[in-house]
Design a protein that fits this description.
mainly alpha
Length: 138
């Protein structure tokens, strides 16, 4: 359903070229969201459109393979790794977990190198990972 205040989108000078200033709402459009067609997110009208990322990005989550988000136990909080600037590349700030990646840990390319099975089951103790990887200390 459309709002009843026509002036939100139309003006008296040019009725047909409607525009809407999303910045005046509680969900201002930033980054790549600015180029998305309204109907892409407003599939059931304009009132009550969900604001959580996963409401629109669930198909991307379900089809992801590098890594497979569901199998890896990645939560459906897209904003943890993705931004509105661009969906790819994604980025995760490991420092937010309490285990900042430094030294040799910072150059590991794949999360699965330490997170065997799911991203939620890695233990912070050095021996827990290094023993299973057979990595020797020099």
């Amino acid at each position: 359903a459309y709002p009843k205040d026509c002036k939100l989108c139309h003006n008296a000078n040019d009725w047909l070229n409607a525009s809407f200033n999303h910045s005046l709402t509680s969900f201002p459009l930033t980054g790549a969201h600015q180029a998305v067609l309204c109907a892409s997110c407003h599939t059931g009208g304009y009132a009550g459109t969900p604001r959580d990322c996963n409401a629109c990005h669930a198909p991307s989550f379900a089809s992801s393979q590098n890594p497979n988000h569901a199998a890896a136990g990645i939560p459906v909080l897209c904003e943890t790794c993705h931004s509105t600037a661009a969906w790819k590349p994604s980025a995760f700030n490991h420092a937010t977990t309490g285990f900042t990646l430094t030294g040799g840990h910072a150059v590991i390319a794949q999360c699965s190198a330490c997170h065997k099975g799911t991203l939620l089951n890695a233990k912070p103790e050095c021996i827990a990972i290094h023993k299973t990887l057979d990595i020797r200390y020099s």
